[in-house]
Amino acid sequence: MQELKQQIDKARLPHHVGVIMDGNGRWAKGKGKPRVFGHHSAVEAVRATVEGCAELGVRYLTLYAFSTENWDRPEMEVGALMKLLVDTIGSEMQMMLDNGIRLATIGDTAGLPEATRDALAFGIEQTSHGEGMTLILALNYSGKWDLARAARQLALEVEAGRMEAAAVDEAALSARLSTHAYPDPELIIRTSGEHRLSNFFLWQAAYAEFYFSPVFWPEFRKPDLYAAIVDFQQRERRFGKTSEQLKQATNP
Protein backbone atom coordinates (compact mmCIF):
# COMPACT_ATOMS: atom_id res chain seq x y z
CA MET A 1 0.00 0.00 0.00
CA GLN A 2 2.77 2.45 0.94
CA GLU A 3 4.60 1.78 -2.32
CA LEU A 4 1.51 2.75 -4.35
CA LYS A 5 0.82 5.78 -2.19
CA GLN A 6 4.39 7.01 -2.62
CA GLN A 7 3.93 6.99 -6.40
CA ILE A 8 1.18 9.61 -6.17
CA ASP A 9 2.18 13.17 -7.04
CA LYS A 10 0.07 15.29 -4.69
CA ALA A 11 0.59 18.31 -6.93
CA ARG A 12 -1.34 16.54 -9.71
CA LEU A 13 -4.26 15.04 -7.81
CA PRO A 14 -7.68 15.00 -9.45
CA HIS A 15 -9.67 17.80 -7.84
CA HIS A 16 -12.91 15.86 -8.10
CA VAL A 17 -13.26 12.07 -8.02
CA GLY A 18 -16.55 10.31 -8.77
CA VAL A 19 -17.17 6.70 -7.76
CA ILE A 20 -19.78 4.32 -9.17
CA MET A 21 -19.99 1.84 -6.31
CA ASP A 22 -20.88 -1.41 -8.06
CA GLY A 23 -20.87 -5.11 -7.27
CA ASN A 24 -22.45 -5.40 -3.81
CA GLY A 25 -25.14 -7.84 -4.91
CA ARG A 26 -22.89 -10.07 -7.01
CA TRP A 27 -20.26 -10.14 -4.25
CA ALA A 28 -22.88 -11.22 -1.71
CA LYS A 29 -24.33 -13.82 -4.07
CA GLY A 30 -20.88 -15.30 -4.57
CA LYS A 31 -20.73 -15.85 -0.82
CA GLY A 32 -24.20 -17.36 -0.67
CA LYS A 33 -25.57 -14.30 1.11
CA PRO A 34 -28.52 -11.97 0.34
CA ARG A 35 -27.88 -8.73 -1.56
CA VAL A 36 -28.44 -6.67 1.60
CA PHE A 37 -25.39 -8.37 3.14
CA GLY A 38 -23.31 -6.88 0.33
CA HIS A 39 -24.62 -3.37 0.99
CA HIS A 40 -23.82 -3.59 4.70
CA SER A 41 -20.36 -4.99 3.97
CA ALA A 42 -19.68 -2.05 1.64
CA VAL A 43 -19.61 0.49 4.48
CA GLU A 44 -15.94 -0.29 5.05
CA ALA A 45 -15.22 0.46 1.37
CA VAL A 46 -16.96 3.81 1.72
CA ARG A 47 -14.92 4.62 4.83
CA ALA A 48 -11.63 3.62 3.19
CA THR A 49 -12.34 5.65 0.06
CA VAL A 50 -13.47 8.74 1.94
CA GLU A 51 -10.51 8.63 4.33
CA GLY A 52 -8.07 7.87 1.50
CA CYS A 53 -9.22 10.80 -0.63
CA ALA A 54 -9.28 13.17 2.33
CA GLU A 55 -5.79 12.16 3.48
CA LEU A 56 -4.34 12.67 -0.01
CA GLY A 57 -5.93 16.11 -0.41
CA VAL A 58 -8.67 15.44 -2.98
CA ARG A 59 -11.08 18.37 -2.73
CA TYR A 60 -14.32 16.74 -3.92
CA LEU A 61 -15.52 13.14 -3.81
CA THR A 62 -18.90 12.11 -5.22
CA LEU A 63 -20.32 8.69 -4.38
CA TYR A 64 -23.12 7.44 -6.65
CA ALA A 65 -25.15 6.05 -3.78
CA PHE A 66 -28.69 5.66 -5.15
CA SER A 67 -29.86 6.27 -8.70
CA THR A 68 -33.36 7.17 -9.87
CA GLU A 69 -33.53 3.68 -11.38
CA ASN A 70 -32.77 1.98 -8.05
CA TRP A 71 -36.40 2.44 -6.99
CA ASP A 72 -37.14 -0.50 -9.31
CA ARG A 73 -35.31 -2.87 -6.97
CA PRO A 74 -37.24 -5.05 -4.46
CA GLU A 75 -38.98 -2.92 -1.82
CA MET A 76 -37.15 -4.70 1.01
CA GLU A 77 -33.76 -3.91 -0.55
CA VAL A 78 -34.65 -0.24 -1.07
CA GLY A 79 -35.82 0.04 2.52
CA ALA A 80 -32.62 -1.59 3.77
CA LEU A 81 -30.51 0.81 1.70
CA MET A 82 -32.33 3.84 3.14
CA LYS A 83 -31.90 2.58 6.70
CA LEU A 84 -28.24 1.81 6.04
CA LEU A 85 -27.71 5.37 4.81
CA VAL A 86 -29.25 6.75 8.01
CA ASP A 87 -27.13 4.44 10.19
CA THR A 88 -23.93 5.16 8.28
CA ILE A 89 -24.26 8.93 8.55
CA GLY A 90 -24.46 8.47 12.31
CA SER A 91 -21.64 5.94 12.61
CA GLU A 92 -19.26 7.87 10.34
CA MET A 93 -19.97 11.33 11.73
CA GLN A 94 -16.87 11.41 13.95
CA MET A 95 -14.68 10.29 11.04
CA MET A 96 -16.02 13.15 8.91
CA LEU A 97 -15.49 15.67 11.68
CA ASP A 98 -11.96 14.41 12.40
CA ASN A 99 -11.03 14.81 8.72
CA GLY A 100 -12.72 18.21 8.24
CA ILE A 101 -15.11 16.70 5.69
CA ARG A 102 -18.16 18.67 4.60
CA LEU A 103 -21.18 16.57 3.59
CA ALA A 104 -23.39 17.56 0.64
CA THR A 105 -25.97 15.93 -1.61
CA ILE A 106 -27.11 16.10 -5.22
CA GLY A 107 -30.26 14.58 -6.68
CA ASP A 108 -33.98 14.71 -6.03
CA THR A 109 -33.65 14.29 -2.27
CA ALA A 110 -37.24 15.46 -1.76
CA GLY A 111 -38.26 12.03 -3.01
CA LEU A 112 -36.39 10.20 -0.26
CA PRO A 113 -38.06 8.90 2.93
CA GLU A 114 -38.43 11.43 5.74
CA ALA A 115 -36.01 9.63 8.05
CA THR A 116 -33.37 9.66 5.31
CA ARG A 117 -33.90 13.36 4.62
CA ASP A 118 -33.64 14.13 8.33
CA ALA A 119 -30.38 12.19 8.66
CA LEU A 120 -28.92 13.97 5.64
CA ALA A 121 -29.95 17.39 6.97
CA PHE A 122 -28.34 16.53 10.31
CA GLY A 123 -25.13 15.37 8.63
CA ILE A 124 -24.93 18.43 6.40
CA GLU A 125 -25.48 20.79 9.35
CA GLN A 126 -23.00 19.03 11.64
CA THR A 127 -20.22 19.08 9.01
CA SER A 128 -20.97 22.52 7.55
CA HIS A 129 -17.82 24.07 9.02
CA GLY A 130 -15.48 21.46 7.56
CA GLU A 131 -12.62 22.99 5.60
CA GLY A 132 -11.29 19.81 4.04
CA MET A 133 -12.84 17.63 1.38
CA THR A 134 -16.47 17.93 0.28
CA LEU A 135 -18.19 14.53 0.25
CA ILE A 136 -21.11 14.60 -2.18
CA LEU A 137 -23.71 11.84 -2.01
CA ALA A 138 -25.61 11.38 -5.28
CA LEU A 139 -29.03 10.22 -4.06
CA ASN A 140 -32.12 9.69 -6.20
CA TYR A 141 -29.83 11.04 -8.91
CA SER A 142 -29.29 10.35 -12.59
CA GLY A 143 -27.56 12.26 -15.35
CA LYS A 144 -30.74 12.35 -17.44
CA TRP A 145 -32.73 13.74 -14.48
CA ASP A 146 -30.08 16.42 -13.97
CA LEU A 147 -30.09 17.47 -17.64
CA ALA A 148 -33.90 17.45 -17.92
CA ARG A 149 -34.19 19.55 -14.76
CA ALA A 150 -31.66 22.09 -16.05
CA ALA A 151 -33.34 22.24 -19.48
CA ARG A 152 -36.74 22.77 -17.86
CA GLN A 153 -35.36 25.62 -15.75
CA LEU A 154 -33.87 27.28 -18.84
CA ALA A 155 -37.16 26.90 -20.73
CA LEU A 156 -39.08 28.52 -17.88
CA GLU A 157 -36.64 31.44 -17.73
CA VAL A 158 -36.91 32.01 -21.48
CA GLU A 159 -40.71 31.75 -21.32
CA ALA A 160 -40.83 34.29 -18.49
CA GLY A 161 -38.66 36.72 -20.44
CA ARG A 162 -35.80 36.59 -17.95
CA MET A 163 -33.46 35.14 -20.56
CA GLU A 164 -33.08 35.25 -24.33
CA ALA A 165 -33.14 31.90 -26.14
CA ALA A 166 -29.94 32.91 -27.92
CA ALA A 167 -28.21 33.10 -24.52
CA VAL A 168 -28.75 29.40 -23.85
CA ASP A 169 -25.32 27.83 -24.20
CA GLU A 170 -23.14 25.23 -22.46
CA ALA A 171 -22.28 27.58 -19.60
CA ALA A 172 -25.95 28.42 -19.03
CA LEU A 173 -26.90 24.76 -18.82
CA SER A 174 -23.94 23.88 -16.58
CA ALA A 175 -24.94 26.67 -14.20
CA ARG A 176 -28.33 25.02 -13.69
CA LEU A 177 -27.15 21.49 -13.05
CA SER A 178 -27.23 20.16 -9.50
CA THR A 179 -23.42 20.15 -9.57
CA HIS A 180 -23.06 23.82 -10.50
CA ALA A 181 -21.19 24.59 -7.27
CA TYR A 182 -18.53 21.94 -7.91
CA PRO A 183 -15.85 21.37 -10.57
CA ASP A 184 -16.49 18.64 -13.13
CA PRO A 185 -14.98 15.27 -12.14
CA GLU A 186 -11.53 14.57 -13.51
CA LEU A 187 -11.51 10.90 -12.51
CA ILE A 188 -14.43 8.48 -12.41
CA ILE A 189 -13.88 5.08 -10.83
CA ARG A 190 -16.24 2.16 -11.37
CA THR A 191 -15.82 -1.07 -9.48
CA SER A 192 -16.72 -4.71 -10.22
CA GLY A 193 -15.30 -4.76 -13.76
CA GLU A 194 -18.32 -3.21 -15.48
CA HIS A 195 -17.56 -0.63 -18.20
CA ARG A 196 -20.45 1.84 -18.30
CA LEU A 197 -21.65 5.09 -16.71
CA SER A 198 -25.11 3.88 -15.65
CA ASN A 199 -26.63 7.36 -16.00
CA PHE A 200 -24.01 9.04 -13.79
CA PHE A 201 -22.62 12.52 -14.61
CA LEU A 202 -23.54 12.31 -18.31
CA TRP A 203 -22.73 16.00 -18.91
CA GLN A 204 -20.06 16.51 -16.28
CA ALA A 205 -17.95 13.53 -17.38
CA ALA A 206 -17.22 14.99 -20.83
CA TYR A 207 -13.46 15.16 -20.17
CA ALA A 208 -13.17 12.80 -17.21
CA GLU A 209 -10.70 9.94 -17.17
CA PHE A 210 -12.27 6.56 -16.44
CA TYR A 211 -10.79 3.81 -14.30
CA PHE A 212 -12.53 0.43 -14.23
CA SER A 213 -11.51 -1.65 -11.24
CA PRO A 214 -12.16 -5.41 -11.28
CA VAL A 215 -12.66 -5.32 -7.51
CA PHE A 216 -16.20 -5.66 -6.17
CA TRP A 217 -17.14 -2.60 -4.13
CA PRO A 218 -17.31 -4.34 -0.71
CA GLU A 219 -13.62 -5.30 -1.12
CA PHE A 220 -12.41 -1.91 -2.44
CA ARG A 221 -9.75 -0.42 -0.14
CA LYS A 222 -7.16 2.36 -0.09
CA PRO A 223 -4.61 0.49 -2.29
CA ASP A 224 -7.32 0.18 -4.97
CA LEU A 225 -7.96 3.92 -4.73
CA TYR A 226 -4.23 4.67 -4.95
CA ALA A 227 -3.95 2.44 -8.05
CA ALA A 228 -6.72 4.44 -9.74
CA ILE A 229 -5.02 7.76 -8.96
CA VAL A 230 -1.60 6.51 -10.10
CA ASP A 231 -3.20 5.39 -13.36
CA PHE A 232 -4.91 8.79 -13.72
CA GLN A 233 -1.60 10.59 -13.31
CA GLN A 234 -0.07 8.52 -16.09
CA ARG A 235 -2.72 9.66 -18.59
CA GLU A 236 -2.18 12.44 -21.11
CA ARG A 237 -5.21 14.72 -20.85
CA ARG A 238 -5.44 16.53 -24.20
CA PHE A 239 -8.89 18.20 -24.16
CA GLY A 240 -9.05 18.01 -27.96
CA LYS A 241 -5.46 19.11 -28.55
CA THR A 242 -2.60 17.03 -29.88
CA SER A 243 0.29 15.70 -27.82
CA GLU A 244 2.61 18.07 -29.69
CA GLN A 245 0.49 21.09 -28.73
CA LEU A 246 0.59 20.09 -25.09
CA LYS A 247 4.38 19.70 -25.18
CA GLN A 248 4.76 23.12 -26.81
CA ALA A 249 2.56 24.70 -24.13
CA THR A 250 4.66 23.07 -21.40
CA ASN A 251 8.00 23.93 -23.03
CA PRO A 252 7.48 27.11 -25.11
TrEMBL record:
Ranges in a coiled coil: none
Question: Keywords, A to Z?
Answer: Magnesium, Metal-binding, Transferase
Q: TM segments?
A: none
Active site feature: 22, 70 (proton acceptor)
Annotated GO MF terms: ditrans,polycis-polyprenyl diphosphate synthase [(2E,6E)-farnesyl diphosphate specific] activity; magnesium ion binding
Cofactors (names): Mg(2+)
Q: What is its EC number?
A: 2.5.1.-
Q: Which PANTHER family match?
A: DEHYDRODOLICHYL DIPHOSPHATE SYNTHASE 2, DEHYDRODOLICHYL DIPHOSPHATE SYNTHASE FAMILY MEMBER
The UniProt entry's sequence similarity note says: Belongs to the UPP synthase family.
Q: What job does this protein perform? A: Catalyzes the condensation of isopentenyl diphosphate (IPP) with allylic pyrophosphates generating different type of terpenoids.
What is the protein named? Isoprenyl transferase
